[in-house]
Amino acid sequence: QVQLVESGGGLVQPGGSLRLSCVGSGDIFRIEDTAWYRQAVGKERELVASIPARGMASYADSVKGRFTISRDDAKNAQWLQMNSLSPEDTAVYYCNAKIINGIGLVYEYWGQGTQVTVSS
Question: Contact at 8 Å (CB) between 117 and 10?
Fold first, then answer.
């Protein structure tokens, strides 16, 4: 079994920054695609940023130039650096990962979610 544990959410003023972290533990042989999603109240969950094991990161248009996704597979970790935050970024943020376990099976996992609130 694998767990993804997030941290780093909170309350920030417009224009501020936050850095979200997500660390995996358990039966992890290799991490494939990783991503961050968010879900605002009354809205569907949306993809914010993703980064494959080999390739370039991609971003939703709404966060391009402001958010940066990164990963360190040696630490089973990924991060989302969020700058120039606006109230429209308020949501619960979830990390997501496709992970190959010790017997070669691929599963998709989600973090528990962390609240990001942008307000003055």
Answer: yes
